[in-house]
Write a structure and sequence with these properties.
The chain is an alpha+beta fold. The protein has two domains: 149 residues, Fructose-1,6-Bisphosphatase, subunit A, domain 1 (Fructose-1,6-Bisphosphatase, Chain A, domain 1, 2-Layer Sandwich), CATH 3.30.540; 95 residues, D-Maltodextrin-Binding Protein, domain 2 (3-Layer(aba) Sandwich), CATH 3.40.190. The protein contains six helices and 16 strands. The chain has a seven-stranded mixed beta sheet, sandwiched between helices. The protein has a three-stranded antiparallel beta sheet with strand order 12-16-14, with helices on both faces. Strands 1-2 form a two-stranded antiparallel sheet. A hairpin with a 5-residue loop joins strand 7 and strand 8. Helix 1 packs antiparallel against helix 2 and helix 5 packs parallel to helix 6. It is a peripheral membrane protein. Converts adenosine-3',5'-bisphosphate (PAP) to AMP.
């Protein structure tokens, strides 16, 4: 893979998809439909998906593409692939809460090596550079010109006073029970893959997910966190979370800064 080209293409497609999404987000109303699993989907999901998919297929025609909105792609079997969630956090989008993201990632041999997470309503853009390290780009976020890139790095956690981030839309008792095993200084709630990015920037130390997710929900944030020095592990064994699993479904997982003393499930 040409990582210079990949970085440029993923960044630009994410920003362009963000514009498509925000045009619909800022309209007077938009239709919300239900998929077969009862999760919501909007015109923004579908339009962003079409744009990103066309761009990735044109740039990387020989690389398998998995995307949430194209059910046929969920039957692909590959260890190396591009994976997309064009609008992660559709519930946040529908309720106009702003915590939604565009996620594009590249997985090789089961590991998410590169990724971009863009939160258009918040104006936050995180991605891996060609060398694999992660940055947050700040400023105007122009498509044709890369702005100021700020290197990001995980925290050095204090296990007697941890900063924890948890889901805004999927918080439950099981999550709270696990969090209560730690000495927590402060809690944040965030939607979509922004939770990975908060750990990547050091704004949080720990993000446990005791609930259903798919690989397109996590791959981009996982890549950004890895590039900032963090880890994502299975909830049950603390082994690294891998990709290309059957049906692209994830087990429960924990995203964390390396110094966090993980508790057993």
């Amino acid at each position: 893979m040409d990582f210079d080209k990949l970085t440029k293409v993923m960044r630009q497609l994410a920003l362009e998809a963000g514009d498509i999404i925000m045009d619909i987000y800022n309209s007077d109303e938009f239709e919300v439909k239900s998929k077969t699993d009862d999760s919501p989907v909007t015109a923004a999901d579908e339009a962003a998906d079409a744009h990103i998919s066309a761009g990735l297929r044109a740039a990387f025609p020989d690389v398998a593409l998995i995307t949430e909105e194209q059910a046929d792609s969920h039957r692909v079997e590959a260890s190396t692939f591009l994976i997309v969630d064009p609008l992660d956090g559709t519930k946040e989008f529908v309720h106009r809460r702003g915590d939604f993201t565009v996620n594009i990632a590249y997985v090789e041999n089961g590991a998410p090596l590169r990724g971009v997470v863009y939160a258009p309503a918040k104006g936050r853009l995180f991605y891996t550079q060609p060398d694999g390290t992660s940055v947050e780009e700040v400023g105007a976020l122009e498509k044709a010109t890369v702005g100021t890139m700020v290197p990001i790095k995980v925290s050095t956690p204090d296990n007697s006073a941890l900063m924890v981030v948890a889901s805004k839309s999927h918080r439950d008792q099981a999550t709270d029970d696990y969090i209560n095993k730690y000495a927590v200084n402060d809690m944040k709630s965030a939607g979509s893959s922004l939770k990975f990015c908060l750990v990547a920037t050091g704004e949080a130390d720990l993000y446990p997910r005791v609930g259903r997710t798919m690989e397109w929900d996590t791959a981009a944030g996982h890549a950004v966190l890895t590039g900032a020095g963090g880890h994502v592990v299975r909830f049950d064994t603390h082994a690294p979370l891998t990709y290309g699993k059957d049906g692209f479904a994830n087990p429960f997982f924990i995203a964390h800064a390396p110094g966090v003393e993980l508790k057993s499930a």
